[in-house]
Amino acid sequence: IRNYSIWFDYRMSNHSAPLLARGHLDPMDQDLNQNSLTSSRKRRLRRCRSAPRGDCMYNDDEDVKTDEPPPHRSIIPMFRDLNPNLREVILFFVLYLTTGTLCFYLVRNQISGNKTNGVLDAVYFCVVTMTTVGYGDLVPSSSTSRLLACAFVFSGMVLVGHLLSRAADYLVERQETLLAKAFDLRKTVGPTEILKELHTKLRHKCYVTFLVLVVLVLVGTIFLVMFEKMPVIEALYCVCSTVTTLGYGDRSFNSGTGRLFAVFWILTSTICLAQFFLYVAELNAETKQRELVKWVLTRRITNNDLEAADLDGDGVIVAAEFILYKLKEMGKIDEEDIDGILQEFEQLDYDDSGTLTNSDLILAQTTS
């Protein structure tokens, strides 16, 4: 097929121009010939770059590989467009909440405190335990209920940590997507503008998360004032102690309506606060890294720097040595990383020539 496509390109390129000059091809035929040439070149370039399998097929109109099965689609309509990381976290959360509610409902007679409804109190106690708020309005009073509380508080902390980890992974994926788009942006703007754009987006996320947190605090305060009949100061005090998972216990949600609201509000507010701290930490780390990179790139190079950058000691600094020295100075790479990379290079360099070829890779893989 590949040889035939090359022969076809050659025939079309040699015969299309004379036919057009003699007027034997109309514009529609010309467009078809041009599309055939373009698609054929695309197929050859794909084979040259990535060497796909023989059964690979591409859609010439959309330039999409079609031999792989489509990604898994959830049977639940609301989950189809969710990020896979978020979908996994939601499944874990539903499993945790269902199991916790069932367990605490079975031992509801072994939990003392201000009770409203058996199922609602079980869900409420499970959420308060998972978020480590621990008001104290519901307290386990037997050995069995206390062991369950110990188990669910640790598993709840693991679940929250897993949620934040997945959120961080999602941030990394989004940044990789933005960096991929940055290659197209470089056609119109420089790399400095791209870095500023990424930094601005992260700062914007911090502002949005903080705004959502403020809204949640106001909603919680207004709810406590209207439904729990608390004074404004006490309501704000209860909201702040809940969001920060402090949970003194002197003020809490006592009514059935309040606990139903608390099941959703406590989860949202505590996770939003943790997410805000995650964004702030990432923004601070990125800011410090940018300042360090700027200082490294703008400071003057001395003779001591040249001596340190001369890795092979030949008195000459090549571009690779200079780049490695700058990366080490920025903290992006260290000696252990370089040693590991050099060891891998030496293992692949089968003939000890200082260069890598296809024969070196084949011999190294065969030997291993």
TrEMBL record:
User: Which superkingdom does the taxonomy of this entry point to?
Assistant: Eukaryota
Q: Which residues form the Potassium channel domain?
A: 92-172, 212-283
* Regions crossing the membrane: 89-107, 144-164, 206-227, 260-281
Keyword NADP listed: no
- Keywords, alphabetical: Calcium, Ion channel, Ion transport, Membrane, Transmembrane, Transmembrane helix, Transport
PROSITE patterns attached to this UniProt entry: EF_HAND_1 (PS00018)
**Coiled coil (UniProt feature):** none
Q: Which Gene3D superfamilies match?
A: 1.10.287.70
What are the subcellular locations of this protein? Membrane
Q: How does it sit in the membrane?
A: Multi-pass membrane protein
Say yes or no: keyword Zinc present. Answer: no
Q: Which family does it belong to?
A: Belongs to the two pore domain potassium channel (TC 1.A.1.7) family.
Q: What is this protein called?
A: Potassium channel domain-containing protein
- Organism this protein belongs to: Brassica napus (Rape)
The upper taxonomy is: Eukaryota, Viridiplantae, Streptophyta, Embryophyta, Tracheophyta
